[in-house]
Q: What sequence folds into this?
């Protein structure tokens, strides 16, 4: 997979690209990343990429021409263009999975007060990483890149992914590692039992319990199996 980021601040990505899962994915050849400096496409000596908003108001708005010229410099038929935007559709694991199938993912990062609204029409979709405002799209693009690249085959172990939060519409069960007792708190007995059927059931029950407590909206969206209905009842009886 190829990822191209259009940004005014490519230097923000240096450590990110070298570190951990992402760094490994690059060295294994699963993904290549390149950058387009939007400012390179701004005319004149001053290289202005932004201007004051029509209708008045605070701040500066990124202009169409440099952004669209930057986009056209790398866009091919295989490109899928994502605009980071506080106004976008909420980004989810499902979207990460969808984007991980793309041959060429292009991510457009705004800055200042955002972009001229006409830029939207040159993109395939607008994505928000949460209900808050960032000062630039760079961190949002890193969130998207990180969540997409770890889904590429060979980036991390397949089993690590299938059990994770959101993958099956539930939050992940709690995890523990050594020692079995810490600060007076014990690791749940069942996890030490070696009984795989019991462990599986315990984990599913805890997933359901956590999801119900913290993200009831996820539970409402999901069709539960008979086993899940039974386990959810058990957690209610525990309370
Ligand atoms: N004035 C805009 C915010 C602009 S923030 C508004 O009120 O909606 C500047 C840039 O940061 C945006 O162009 C976008 O690229 C990025 N950004 C800000 N918040 C974001 C979010 N929640 N998700 C994704 N990108 C975001």
A:
């Amino acid at each position: 997979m190829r990822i191209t980021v259009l940004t005014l601040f490519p230097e923000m990505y240096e450590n990110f690209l070298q570190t951990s899962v992402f760094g490994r994915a690059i060295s294994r050849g699963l993904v290549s990343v390149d950058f387009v400096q939007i400012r390179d496409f701004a005319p004149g000596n001053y290289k202005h990429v932004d201007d004051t908003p029509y209708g008045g108001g605070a701040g500066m708005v990124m202009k169409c021409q440099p952004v669209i010229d930057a986009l056209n410099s790398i866009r091919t038929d295989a490109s899928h263009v994502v605009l980071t935007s506080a106004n976008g559709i909420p980004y989810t694991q499902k979207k990460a999975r969808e984007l991980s199938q793309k041959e060429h993912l292009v991510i457009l990062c705004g800055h200042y007060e955002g972009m001229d609204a006409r830029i939207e029409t040159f993109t395939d979709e607008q994505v928000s990483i949460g209900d808050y405002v960032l000062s630039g799209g760079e961190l949002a693009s890193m969130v998207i890149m990180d969540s997409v690249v770890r889904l590429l085959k060979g980036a991390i172990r397949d089993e690590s992914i299938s059990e994770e939060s959101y993958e099956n519409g539930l939050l992940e069960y709690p995890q523990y590692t050594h020692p079995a007792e810490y600060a007076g708190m014990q690791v749940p007995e069942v996890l030490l039992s070696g009984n795989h059927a019991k462990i599986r059931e315990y984990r599913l029950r805890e997933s359901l319990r956590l999801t119900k407590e913290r993200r009831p909206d996820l539970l409402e969206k999901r069709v539960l199996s008979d086993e899940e209905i039974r386990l959810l009842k058990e957690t209610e009886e525990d309370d």
Summary: The longest helix spans residues 196-214. Strands lie at 2-7, 32-37, 50-51, 61-62, 79-90, 104-108, 125-128, 181-182, 185-186. The pocket of S-adenosyl-L-homocysteine is lined by residues 84-87, 109-111, 113-115, 128-130, 132-134, 136-137, 140 (CB under 6 Å). The mean pLDDT is 96.
